[in-house]
C-alpha cells in the first residue's frame, strides 16, 4: 500500500519548497494516525497483542462472499452473506470471526466431509467483543478436527472515511453528483465489510458475487464469470475464484466508471467517465512495467492472475493499494493529461504504478506473515518502484532518484532517538498496526534492500529474490525465509566474510533501530582507523553497544570510476587497516552511497575532497557528491563535523551541473534560509546563495522546456529557478512574470513542467488580472494534480487583499470553488510560501479558528500553528503569533501552544548558537559576490 497524509501538502508548496523537498507519497502516513498514536496506548496495545490475535487452530480455506448494494442512489445500507470454509485443527467449542460494526442476522454451522457433502449441525449462539472486534460463536457440543462451513448473513453501512467498504462520489460533466462503492482493506478493515478471519497469514480463496443496479457495473480481483438478471430488476455479477491470498487483498467496486484497455496485455484502467480520457498513459506504463517485472523475476504475473485492472478514485486516503488484480489509486497518482500533467506528476504516477505492481509478487504472491514484517512487503515495493521504472524507461534515469528522494530522507528521520527497528510490532489493534506504515517500513527497508543487493551483486541478488519468491509462492514469510534464500544463493560464493553469516548480516540491519556513522580517520602514516557508532541527530554517543555488520568500499584519488570496487567489512566497534594512499591524496568511503550509513573523515581528508570537488567535480562519482553534501550537513548539525567544513564544501556547487547533489544541497540551503530570514545577515546569505546558483542559472531557461530534455535536468531547473526567484534575482522574477502574463493574455500557455515556478513567482510581480486568471483556471479544472498546482500558486501572492480573499474561499465567501476538505487545507497551507502569507494566515485564524477546528479538525489547526511558529524569526513576528496563541487557548491543546512557543524561542536564539555564529562568521569572512 502507498500511504500519504490526507492533508499532507505543506511539504510541496511551490513557493517555499521546491520539487526536491516534495515528499514522495510512499513516505507519508495516513491522516487517520494523526492524534491517535498515544505512546502509552501503543505500549499497552503491544503488551496485549495476543489478546487480539486469532487462535491458531482455526484456519480459513475459502470464502463465498455475496453482497447487495444500491449505492447508485446514494444509499449507504447494504446486506450480504458469507460462507467461510474452515479447517478446524483441534477439538473446540468456540469459533472466532472478526467483525467491525456489522449486524449478523443469521448463522448456521455445517460439517463438510471429504466428498463435499455438507451436514447442518446447528445455529450458533454468539457474543460480540467490540473492543477486540470479534464475534465469538459458542458450539453446544465440542466439534472434532475437520472441515466446516460457517454461513452468515449480515447487514452493514457503507463507510464514509475511505476505509473498509466505503461510499464516495464525483461530479459528472453536468455537475450531477454520482456515487460509487469501493474497498480499502489493508491493514485490518476487511472485517468491516464482511465477517472474516482478518490476519495476513490466513490465506484463502475467494468467490465473490455482487448484486447491483444494471446501470452500474462491478469489478473485483478476478474477471467476471457471469452476469445474471434478478427478478427485482437488478443484476448479479459473479466473479471467478481467486488464488489463495490474504483477505486484505480482496477488492471490489460498484460504479459507472469507464475504462481503457489493452486486450492482449489483459490490462484495463478505470476512471470516472469525464476523466477516462486521462487513462492512456497509465495503461501504457502498466504494460511496460509489468513486462519488466515478468522478465526480471522469471515468474510471469499471468501464471498467478488472469488480468490486472487499475482504478483512479476521487476519494482514496490510502493513496494507492496493490489489491491482487485490482490496483487502486487516488486520481492524481494515476491519471495523466497531456499538456497539463507536470514531469513531477508523471514521475509520481510511473513510480507508484511500479510500486503497486511490485506488490503483485512482494506482498501478494509472498506475504508478510504478520505486520511486524511489513518491511518485506513495502521495502521491495519502494526499491522496485525506481528500479522497475528504470528498466521500463531507461532514458529517464529513475534509478538516479532513489538515493536523494528515498535513502537520504529516511536517514534524517531514522536518526531520531524514538525510531524503531524494521522488524517490529506494536500490537494488533487498528492504529497500532497502521502506525507501522511509516518511513522505516518503506524507505529504510528499500534502502537496506538496495544495500543487500549491491553487496551480493546485481546478478546474485536477482537469483536470490527469484528463489525467495519461488520457494514461498502463495505463502507467508518473515525474516527467516529471507535469510534462508540469501544463505542458499551465497553458499560457496565467497561474497560474505567467514566471520559474517547471512543471518548476522541481515539481522544487524533489520532488528536494530537506527544506523551507524562510519568514522574514517587517516593516520597519514600508512593506516586508517575505522570506528562505528550509532548516529543521532541531536547528540554524540560513543558508548552505544550496537554493532552493525557494515559493508564498505573505498575509492582512492586517481582510481578509475569504472573499476569495480571490492567490498570490505567492519564488524567490530573499531579497527586499524593498512592504507597506501599518499598523504596528499583523498580517499572516499561508501562509494555512491550504497550503504545505509553516514561517513565522516578527518579534517585533512575533508579538505582534500573539497579541493577535488572545486577543481573537477566529476572526479568524484555522482551519488558520492550528493552523499558528501548530505553527510557533511547532517554531521555538522549533530556536532560531529565543523560547520565551516560543510559550508566550504558547499561552495563547490557553483560548478555542479547535476541534480542529485543539488537536491541534497537544497535541504541544507532551506534550513539556513529558514533560520536567516529576518536576521541582520540575511542579505549576505542571499548573496551566498546567488553565488552558488549563478553559474548554473546561466545555463538554464527558467520558463521553457526542450523536447529532448532529460528528466534529471527538469528537476535541476526547478531547484535552481526556485532558489533564483526566492532570492529575488531580477531575471528570474522578470522571466516568470512575462511567461505568466503571456498565458493570461492568450499568447502562449506556460509549459506544465515549469508551471509551479512560473505561476508562483510570476504572480508576485504580475497584475491583479493574473490572480483572477489563475483562480478562474482553478474553477474550471477537474484535474486533481493541476488543481493542487494552482492552489499552491495562488497562495504565493504577496498582495494582502488577494491573500485575505483567497483564505476566505477555504470557508466560503464571494469567490467559491467546490473545494473538498483536503483542498481547503491546501489553501490555508499554500499561503505559508511568503511572510506576507504567514501574516495573512495569522489574521485569518484569529477570526476563523473555530471553523478550522470544527470542520478540518483540531489537529489541522495545530499543524497550521506549528508551521507559523517554524516561520517566526523576529520579536515582531513572535508578538503576532503570541496574540494568536492567546486566542487559541480554549481550542488548542496546551502541548501545542507550548510546542509553538518552544519553536519560536529556538528560532530567536539561533543567531547566538554555535551554528548561527559560525554561519555568520563564514558569510562575513568570504564576502561572496554573485556570479
Automatic annotation (TrEMBL):
Residue ranges of domain Aminopeptidase N-like N-terminal in the record: 59-249
GO MF assignments: metalloaminopeptidase activity; peptide binding; zinc ion binding
Q: How is the cofactor bound?
A: Binds 1 zinc ion per subunit.
Q: Which GO terms describe its cellular component?
A: cytoplasm; extracellular space; plasma membrane; side of membrane
Q: Which domain of life is it from?
A: Eukaryota
Question: Positions of the site: Transition state stabilizer?
Answer: 442
Q: Which family does it belong to?
A: Belongs to the peptidase M1 family.
The protein's organism comes out as Anopheles minimus
EC code(s) of this entry: 3.4.11.-
Cell compartments where the protein resides: Cell membrane; Membrane
Ranges for domain ERAP1-like C-terminal come to 586-900
**Binding residues annotated for Zn(2+), in chain numbering:** 355, 359, 378
Its EC top class is hydrolase
Per the Swiss-Prot or TrEMBL record, the active site comprises 356
* Signal sequence region: 1-22
Record membrane topology: Lipid-anchor; GPI-anchor; Single-pass type II membrane protein
Where does the Peptidase M1 membrane alanine aminopeptidase domain start and stop, copy by copy?
281-498
On whether Disulfide bond is a keyword of this UniProt record, the answer is: yes
Q: Which cofactor does it need?
A: Zn(2+)
Q: What GO biological process term is on the record, naming one? A: proteolysis
Q: What's the protein called, per UniProt?
A: Aminopeptidase
- Would the keyword Metal-binding turn up in this protein's UniProt record? yes
- Keywords, ordered alphabetically: Aminopeptidase, Cell membrane, Disulfide bond, Glycoprotein, GPI-anchor, Hydrolase, Lipoprotein, Membrane, Metal-binding, Metalloprotease, Protease, Signal, Signal-anchor, Transmembrane, Transmembrane helix, Zinc
Annotated CDD domains = M1_APN-Q_like (cd09601)
Amino acid at each position: 500500500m502507498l500511504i500519504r497524509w490526507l492533508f499532507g501538502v505543506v511539504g510541496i508548496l511551490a513557493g517555499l519548497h521546491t520539487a526536491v523537498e516534495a515528499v514522495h507519497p510512499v513516505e507519508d502516513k495516513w491522516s487517520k494516525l494523526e492524534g491517535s498514536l498515544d505512546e502509552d496506548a501503543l505500549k499497552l496495545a503491544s503488551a496485549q497483542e495476543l489478546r487480539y490475535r486469532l487462535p491458531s487452530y482455526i484456519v480459513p480455506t475459502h470464502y463465498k462472499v455475496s453482497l447487495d448494494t444500491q449505492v447508485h442512489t446514494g444509499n449507504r445500507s447494504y446486506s450480504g452473506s458469507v460462507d467461510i470454509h474452515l479447517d478446524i485443527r483441534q477439538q473446540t467449542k468456540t469459533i472466532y470471526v472478526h467483525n467491525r460494526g456489522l449486524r449478523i442476522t443469521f448463522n448456521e454451522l455445517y460439517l463438510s466431509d471429504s466428498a463435499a457433502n455438507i451436514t447442518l449441525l446447528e445455529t450458533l449462539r454468539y457474543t460480540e467483543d467490540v473492543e477486540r472486534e470479534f464475534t465469538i460463536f459458542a458450539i453446544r457440543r465440542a466439534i472434532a478436527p475437520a472441515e466446516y462451513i460457517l454461513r452468515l448473513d449480515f447487514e452493514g453501512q457503507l463507510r464514509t472515511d475511505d476505509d473498509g467498504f466505503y461510499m464516495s462520489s464525483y461530479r459528472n460533466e453536468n455537475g450531477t453528483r454520482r456515487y460509487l462503492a469501493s474497498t480499502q482493506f489493508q491493514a485490518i478493515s476487511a472485517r468491516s465489510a464482511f465477517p472474516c478471519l482478518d490476519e495476513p497469514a490466513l490465506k484463502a480463496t475467494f468467490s465473490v458475487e455482487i448484486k447491483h443496479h444494471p446501470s452500474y457495473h462491478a469489478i473485483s480481483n478476478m474477471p467476471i464469470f457471469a452476469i445474471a438478471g434478478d427478478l427485482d430488476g437488478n443484476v448479479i455479477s459473479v466473479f471467478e475464484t481467486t488464488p489463495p491470498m490474504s483477505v486484505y487483498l480482496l477488492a471490489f467496486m460498484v460504479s459507472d466508471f469507464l475504462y481503457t484497455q489493452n486486450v492482449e496485455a489483459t490490462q484495463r484502467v478505470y476512471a470516472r467517465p469525464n476523466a477516462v480520457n486521462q487513462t492512456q498513459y497509465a495503461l501504457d506504463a502498466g504494460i511496460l512495467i509489468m513486462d519488466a517485472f515478468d522478465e526480471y523475476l522469471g515468474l510471469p504475473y499471468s501464471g498467478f492472475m488472469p488480468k490486472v485492472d487499475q482504478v483512479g478514485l476521487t476519494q482514496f486516503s490510502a493513496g494507492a493499494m496493490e489489491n491482487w488484480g485490482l490496483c487502486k489509486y487516488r486520481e492524481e497518482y494515476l491519471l495523466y493529461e497531456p499538456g497539463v500533467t507536470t514531469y513531477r506528476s508523471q514521475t509520481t504516477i510511473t513510480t507508484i504504478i511500479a510500486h503497486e505492481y511490485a506488490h503483485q509478487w512482494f506482498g501478494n504472491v509472498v506475504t508478510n506473515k504478520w505486520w511486524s514484517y511489513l518491511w518485506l512487503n513495502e521495502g521491495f515495493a519502494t526499491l522496485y518502484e525506481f528500479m522497475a521504472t528504470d528498466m521500463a524507461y531507461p532514458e529517464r534515469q529513475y534509478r538516479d532518484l532513489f538515493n536523494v528522494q528515498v535513502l537520504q530522507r529516511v536517514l534524517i528521520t531514522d536518526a531520531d532517538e524514538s525510531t524503531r527497528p524494521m522488524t517490529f510490532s506494536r500490537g494488533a489493534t487498528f492504529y497500532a498496526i497502521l502506525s507501522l506504515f511509516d518511513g522505516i517500513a518503506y524507505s529504510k527497508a528499500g534502502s537496506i534492500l538496495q544495500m543487500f543487493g549491491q553487496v551480493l551483486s546485481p546478478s546474485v541478488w536477482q537469483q536470490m529474490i527469484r528463489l525467495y519468491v519461488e520457494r514461498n509462492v502463495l505463502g507467508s514469510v518473515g525474516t527467516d525465509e529471507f535469510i534462508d534464500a540469501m544463505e542458499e544463493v551465497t553458499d560457496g560464493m565467497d561474497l560474505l566474510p567467514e566471520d559474517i553469516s547471512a543471518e548476522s548480516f541481515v539481522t544487524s540491519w533489520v532488528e536494530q533501530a537506527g544506523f551507524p556513522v562510519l568514522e574514517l580517520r587517516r593516520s597519514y602514516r600508512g593506516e586508517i582507523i575505522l570506528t562505528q557508532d550509532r548516529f543521532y541527530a541531536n547528540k554524540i554517543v560513543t558508548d552505544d553497544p550496537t554493532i552493525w555488520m557494515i559493508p564498505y568500499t573505498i575509492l582512492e584519488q586517481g582510481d578509475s570510476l569504472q573499476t569495480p570496487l571490492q567490498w570490505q567489512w567492519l564488524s567490530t566497534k573499531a579497527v586499524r587497516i593498512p592504507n597506501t594512499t599518499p598523504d596528499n591524496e583523498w580517499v572516499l568511503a561508501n562509494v555512491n552511497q550504497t550503504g545505509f550509513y553516514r561517513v565522516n573523515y578527518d579534517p585533512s581528508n575533508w579538505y582534500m575532497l573539497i579541493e577535488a570537488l572545486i577543481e573537477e567535480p566529476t572526479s568524484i562519482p555522482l551519488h558520492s557528491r550528493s552523499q558528501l553534501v548530505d553527510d557533511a550537513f547532517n554531521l555538522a548539525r549533530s556536532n560531529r563535523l565543523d560547520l565551516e567544513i560543510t559550508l566550504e564544501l558547499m561552495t563547490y556547487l557553483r560548478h555542479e551541473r547535476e541534480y542529485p547533489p543539488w537536491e541534497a544541497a537544497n535541504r541544507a540551503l532551506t534550513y539556513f534560509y529558514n533560520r536567516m530570514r529576518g536576521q541582520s545577515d540575511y542579505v549576505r546569505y542571499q548573496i551566498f546563495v546567488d553565488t552558488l546558483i549563478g553559474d548554473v542559472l546561466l545555463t538554464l531557461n527558467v520558463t521553457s522546456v526542450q523536447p529532448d530534455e532529460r528528466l534529471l535536468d527538469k528537476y535541476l531547473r526547478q531547484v535552481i529557478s526556485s532558489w533564483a526567484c526566492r532570492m529575488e534575482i531580477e531575471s528570474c522574477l522578470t522571466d516568470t512574470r512575462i511567461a505568466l502574463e503571456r498565458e493570461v493574455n492568450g499568447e502562449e500557455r506556460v509549459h506544465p513542467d515549469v508551471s509551479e515556478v512560473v505561476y508562483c513567482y510570476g504572480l508576485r510581480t504580475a497584475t491583479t488580472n493574473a490572480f483572477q486568471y489563475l483562480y478562474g483556471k482553478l474553477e474550471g479544472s477537474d484535474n486533481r494534480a493541476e488543481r493542487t498546482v494552482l492552489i499552491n500558486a495562488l497562495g504565493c501572492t504577496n498582495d494582502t487583499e488577494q491573500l485575505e480573499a483567497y483564505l476566505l474561499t477555504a470557508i466560503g465567501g464571494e469567490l467559491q470553488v467546490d473545494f473538498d476538505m483536503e483542498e481547503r487545507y491546501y489553501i490555508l497551507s499554500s499561503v505559508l510560501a511568503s511572510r506576507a502569507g504567514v501574516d495573512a494566515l495569522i489574521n485569518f485564524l484569529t477570526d476563523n479558528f473555530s471553523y478550522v477546528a470544527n470542520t478540518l479538525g483540531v489537529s489541522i489547526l495545530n499543524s497550521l500553528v506549528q508551521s507559523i511558529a517554524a516561520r517566526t524569526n523576529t520579536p515582531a513576528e513572535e508578538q503576532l503569533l503570541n496574540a494568536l496563541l492567546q486566542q487559541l487557548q480554549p481550542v488548542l491543546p496546551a502541548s501545542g501552544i507550548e510546542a509553538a512557543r518552544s519553536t519560536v524561542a529556538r528560532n530567536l536564539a539561533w543567531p547566538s548558537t554555535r551554528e548561527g555564529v559560525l554561519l555568520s562568521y563564514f558569510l562575513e569572512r568570504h564576502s561572496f559576490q554573485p556570479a
